[in-house]
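Customer escalation, tier 2.

The customer says the design service returned an amino acid string that "doesn't look like it belongs to this structure." They asked us to rerun it and document both sides in this ticket. The original structure tokens are below, unchanged.
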């Protein structure tokens, strides 16, 4: 029986029968596998594109979740009042963001601590 690597991996990861198979368990360290795809010339660009799209989807969902009315981060300029602005606490906002969207919080920290660019 001829089977491609793609078919083999898809079967291992999607078929519950193989959840305890040694090959499936071995894939638990998938970061090495992803790193291999990134290094390979024929898959590097596609892997970067896939990863980029995946993280953009994650950050977009985190932003939607944070700005959801239920999380009380929804800001309406028309309904803003002096009292609401006076009661605003950036520390509370930061703590809530850390809890609700930790990856987005890490990205924000990375952007705020990035070294400045040299001006030409």
């Amino acid at each position: 029986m001829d089977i491609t690597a793609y078919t083999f991996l898809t079967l291992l990861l999607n078929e519950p029968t193989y959840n305890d198979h040694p090959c499936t368990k071995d894939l638990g360290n998938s970061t090495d596998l992803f790193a291999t795809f990134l290094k390979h010339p024929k898959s590097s660009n596609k892997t970067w594109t896939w990863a980029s799209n995946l993280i953009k989807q994650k950050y977009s969902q985190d932003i939607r979740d944070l700005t959801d009315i239920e999380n009380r981060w929804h800001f309406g300029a028309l309904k803003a009042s002096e009292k609401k602005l006076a009661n605003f606490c950036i520390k509370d906002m930061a703590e809530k963001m850390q809890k609700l969207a930790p990856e987005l919080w890490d990205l924000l920290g990375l952007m705020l601590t990035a070294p400045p660019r040299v001006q030409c």
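Tier 2 assessment: The sequence is consistent with the input. DSSP finds seven helices and no strands in the chain. Helices lie at 5-14, 22-26, 30-39, 44-66, 82-87, 90-100, 102-113. Sent an explanation to the customer and offered a walkthrough call.
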